[in-house]
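pls design
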């Protein structure tokens, strides 16, 4: 039974309920005091996902009910480590009021060619059909980028009533809004966590006389977080401790990432370079290709899948030797393959998204 006043959780947007079996339940007498559901309370105070079985159908319906009227500006947030897969093509319809926010730029290596990277990001978006691109680069770790985002919003509010943050789950929408609130000396209200689909419904926040609306992430059923226990999700989605680790690897050698996946170098120049942009918590071992199965089944790994009986699937990628390549694993991170490689294979649980990106932006 939902509460008669339809009070909504400040953290995730869910309508607060008196039924303790609901993910958004809270004691009726506490609604006006806390304005957070039990699920958000436990995420914020204990980093614990109390009820992971929030209705995905309901979340998807909430995403699809968003109205984009003529006075609405859309901020489409993208994950720089999963660029191609975080683009939502349906927003081609709204190009006249669409801004892209390329988030998590702190994940980029300390030395990189910013001009080339931006050009390839623009080229990626153009190849998806987007034109007249308006792009803002952000990271909650870099205050200057939040200041630029805030300045853009102040310029836009002269001609619009609201700005809607949209994107796939875990791209960082809520974190960015909290960072904007903090910059403007307001308390960050939104619940932020590594758990997929933390935001359940629309959350409307006032910022400098304009409505900022946080939205549920568009469902990503191929995200690795759907295949992990909540405790392991916190270790895999660890953006604050994410850094690039470079490996020089010979043909017929492989990298095993905990019990999650294996990256095999099959053919190309005798020795090549693979850079992994993953959580620093993960253990990566270099082994021979013939030992992959044994290592993936090892009980000594720190992280494993919820269902060990599900099959691993093998993805084969043919690469152009004269080019670098980026391969994204949904929810896990990005692999950058150096020039000279002709073929790699990735073994990972069936259903997790693995994709060779259009261009190597890193």
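designed seq:
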């Amino acid at each position: 039974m939902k509460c008669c006043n339809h009070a909504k959780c400040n953290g995730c947007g869910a309508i607060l309920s008196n039924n303790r079996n609901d993910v958004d339940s809270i004691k009726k007498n506490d609604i006006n005091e806390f304005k957070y559901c039990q699920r958000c309370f436990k995420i914020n105070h204990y980093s614990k996902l109390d009820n992971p079985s929030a209705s995905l159908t309901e979340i998807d319906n909430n995403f699809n009910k968003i109205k984009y009227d003529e006075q609405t500006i859309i901020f489409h947030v993208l994950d720089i480590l999963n660029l191609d897969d975080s683009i939502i093509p349906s927003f081609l319809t709204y190009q006249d009021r669409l801004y892209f926010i390329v988030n998590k730029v702190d994940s980029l290596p300390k030395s990189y060619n910013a001009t080339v990277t931006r050009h390839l990001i623009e080229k990626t978006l153009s190849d998806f059909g987007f034109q007249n691109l308006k792009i803002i680069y952000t990271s909650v770790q870099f205050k200057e980028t939040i200041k630029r985002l805030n300045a853009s919003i102040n310029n836009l509010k002269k001609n619009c009533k609201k700005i809607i943050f949209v994107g796939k789950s875990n791209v960082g929408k809520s974190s960015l809004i909290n960072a904007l609130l903090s910059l403007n000396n307001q308390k960050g209200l939104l619940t932020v966590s590594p758990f997929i689909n933390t935001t359940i419904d629309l959350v409307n926040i006032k910022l400098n006389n304009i409505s900022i609306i946080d939205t549920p992430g568009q469902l990503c059923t191929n995200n690795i977080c759907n295949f992990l226990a909540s405790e392991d999700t916190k270790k895999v989605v660890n953006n604050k401790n994410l850094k690039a680790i470079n490996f020089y690897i010979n043909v017929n050698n492989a990298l095993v990432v905990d019990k999650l996946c294996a990256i095999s170098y099959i053919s190309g120049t005798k020795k090549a370079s693979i850079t992994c942009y993953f959580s620093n918590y993960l253990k990566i071992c270099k082994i021979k290709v013939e030992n992959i199965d044994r290592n993936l089944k090892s009980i000594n790994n720190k992280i494993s899948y919820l269902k060990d009986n599900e099959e691993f699937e093998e993805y084969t990628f043919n690469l152009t030797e004269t080019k670098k390549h980026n391969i994204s694993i949904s929810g896990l991170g990005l692999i950058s393959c150096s020039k000279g490689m002709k073929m790699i294979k990735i073994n990972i649980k069936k259903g997790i998204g693995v994709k060779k990106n259009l261009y190597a932006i890193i």
